[in-house]
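Notes to self after the Tuesday call (sharing in case useful).
The group wants a holo model before anyone commits to mutagenesis around the pocket. I volunteered. Ligand is 5-deoxy-5-fluoro-D-xylulose. Logging inputs and output together so the record is complete.
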Amino acid sequence: MAGLLPSDALFLGFDSSTQSLKATVLDGNLIIIHSESVHFDTELPHYRTKDGVYRDPSGNGRIVSPTLMWVEALDVLLEKLKSKVDYGKVVAISGSGQQHGSVYWNKRGKAILTSLDPKKPLRSQLEDAFSVRDSPIWMDSSTTSQCRELEKAVGGALELSKLTGSRAYERYTGPQIRKIYQTQPDVYNDTERISLVSSFVASILIGNYASIDETDGAGMNLMDIKQRVWSKTILEATAPGLEEKLGHLAPAHAVAGLISSYFVERFHFQKSCIVIQWSGDNPNSLAGLTLNTPGDLAISLGTSDTVFGITSEPQPSLEGHVFPNPVDPNCYMVMLVYKNGSLTREDVRNRCAESSWDTFNKYLERTPSLNGGKLGFYYKEHEILPPLPVGFHRYVLENVDSLNETKVLEVQEFDPPSEVRAIIEGQFLSMRGHAERFGMPTPPNRIIATGGASKNESILKSIASIFGCPVYTVQRPDSASLGAALRAAHGWLCNKEGRFVPISCLYGDKLDKTSMSAKLAFPAGDADLLSKYTVLVNKRMQIEKNLVEKLGRS
Ligand code: 5FX
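Result:
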């Protein structure tokens, strides 16, 4: 670390998320020196968003956000930060954007972007730059027919996943673009450039259209993930003339451009400050949690549970996502998203553990590993992974200790302590099974657990036993903007060296002296127990397959 980054330099990371715009500033020792945010609903109330979005009241699944709100948030955030941060010391900026959301620049877009007047705020100047006023975002689910059309164009959902890293999803940008082309052809024709939220804010910073980075680009169903180029077949199946509107792709560590004169004159950034490609929020969190080697895995336990990890041999299949790794172009990032996370755990806590986490944890400690063969599937919400409707399913595997010859019985209920263990073990068995299926090695090198439930020691112990690797915790809510600031430093170093440099060179073995330090919560679990869990994972995946065949959505 010492010597690689100038000690008096600053690195600025943004996160343009669904509900707010955040910033994290790192110094040359990778210590956070400042954080700031603008909350859309409360600080920009004139847009009248709820949770940063507009939901179509007709129930058609359309969910959008006002594009200009994101612009105004940048005006406000930079004003808020300027008395606290010496912008003249910032040598590189990068950022994170909510994935999949898209921005449509009209034919005047580029001319407006390249001639911003530093005497005026951004918002009023960009008012006429867009062909679509409200941007579709990741929560939108109004494009099912477009999804099926794109899958059909390449021979089915699995084929699309093998080609682009994911089957078609309603929130993905390709289906969203196709919907605009089909329903508003004039608007599509008036569109000069389509940006993702990430490349959109980067475009404002460089005063020109910024490329879409290869990692966030994989969240569109349009990019060939092996070649890292737009897939001509899918572009043709999406909308005519699309390649020109998307521009070129760039690796996430590349320089998008120099900061524009607008920011140099208005906020006194130095002219040589570079903007590193922005990327998606999940990829930036991967960087912020310091995952950097194949076999590293992170589990985020929140409203929804998310798993992401690094692999050199991804195997895209029907559930889950593969993106190029944002911090190493030689490997990939695997991501699994579960809709049933903390709310479903809370439901079990309320029903079976007197609404108390203490009782919940006591039950978890009191019940044996493997839960005497009791396996549960709990879907309080329609689940994404596996694609199953609302419902609870409980099974008992006989002879759980000699699992090979086991018989499976379906039952209606478990005693309360077993129900508690079943929901916890069930979620991690599922995560392990699906992560392995997507090409993650077993056991992982290490797991970094984050999010609300990662404070729970009993849960962390189960993770260490089921995955058979050490579990670390990181309690930081802003891993995406921190990851963006770290990627700014990484991009700056790669640019200085004129070649790709592994991101771990930034911190080496001194990670615990930086703001990215993680705490060892549990060492790897017992090897004998791990092999029993391996058999249990396979049994669970088999039962899950049967459930999907019987009840699943296609
Ligand atoms: C990932 O595929 C998602 O859709 C979400 O996690 C968004 O990135 C949230 F911003």
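Two things stood out.
The mean pLDDT is 95.
The longest strand covers residues 20-27.
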